Structure formats: C-alpha cells, structure tokens
Amino acid sequence: MAEEVTKQKKEKRSLVDCTQAFLQKIVTSDSQEIDLNSTSESLGIQIRRLYDIVNVLSGINVVKHVSKNKVKYLPNPNISIDEEQAMRELDAKEKELAELEASIQHEIEEFTNSLDYKYYAYVDKNDLIKLPGTDGHRFYAFKSQPDMTLEAIDDENNEGGMTLKCESQIGGIDIFEVW
C-alpha cells in the first residue's frame, strides 16, 4: 500500500520539477558529483526518468558521466568560480528568505485568529472618514466582548431606516455615536 502511494507520488511530478530538483541537488552537493541511485531515492524520482534527465543535461554539457551511476556537474565556463559561489550564496539566501516569509505569514494568521486580536481590533475615525459615500451618514462605535453579534434589520415603520440589534452573551455592550 505504501509502495503504491509512493509510486503515484513519483508519477505525478512533472519533468520540469524533477529536473529542477535534480539540478538543485547536484549543484549544492559538496563535490558536485552525485550517485543516481541514492538521488533517485532521496528525490522520489524513478531511476528511468532520472536517466532521461541526465542524458538531456549531458547532451547540453551541463553534466557528465564519471562512472556507471555517478554524474558530475559541469560549471558554466563563462561563469567564474566567484560568480558561481555568489550564485550559491544567493540561492541559500533566497531559501532562507522564503522560509522567513512563510514563518511570518504563519505568525500573522495565528495572530489574526487569536482572541487578543479580536478583542483589541478597532477602527478609528480617520478610517471611517476615508470610506467613500460616508457623507450624511451616522456612525456608531460598539465596545463589547468578542462574541457580540450585530444585525441590521430594515425598519418598515421608518422609510429607508434601519434597526440595529446587538447581543452579547458574555457582557454588556457600549454604543458611542462617532458622528
């Protein structure tokens, strides 16, 4: 069963994804020489497909076979060793920044879903003034527990008017007219 899932996962990866993963692995390896069998296992790419990738990359002088199951990365002769090292450092920095961005995004999601955020979230008068179409309307501020519900009901007795219904199971509700 686990073998089936692994096989399905292997087959769903595109050739582009497989090639990028392979190149990333060989370029970042210390000796820039890798064993295809272990690479196949670690990347989850079928060995047959990995050989297809290697054959194409070999044809354009990106890698070369050094033994039956080993290939070596051939650096671009137009790029100096310093430039290549700088590119590796930039790749590492890019990965670090992506991880940091993901971490920050996770923190933001946790914060916005926390009770503290819901309790202390507010809108000030300047935020309301910036809204389009606010001229001639009244604004009210409600201070309550996070469980407060607010329902706007069309008032049939007052043409064009609304009735607001506020409820909180935890505590009281303070209502302030902003303007």
UniProtKB/TrEMBL annotation:
Pfam families: E2F_CC-MB, WHD_E2F_TDP. It is found in: Nucleus. Residues 83-110 form a coiled coil. Residues 10-75 form the E2F/DP family winged-helix DNA-binding domain. GO terms for molecular function: DNA-binding transcription factor activity, RNA polymerase II-specific; protein dimerization activity; RNA polymerase II cis-regulatory region sequence-specific DNA binding. SUPFAM superfamilies: E2F-DP heterodimerization region, Winged helix' DNA-binding domain. One of its GO terms (cellular component) is RNA polymerase II transcription regulator complex. Its main location: nucleus. Keywords: Coiled coil, DNA-binding, Nucleus, Transcription, Transcription regulation. Belongs to the E2F/DP family. This is Putative: transcription factor E2F6-like protein. It comes from Tritrichomonas foetus.
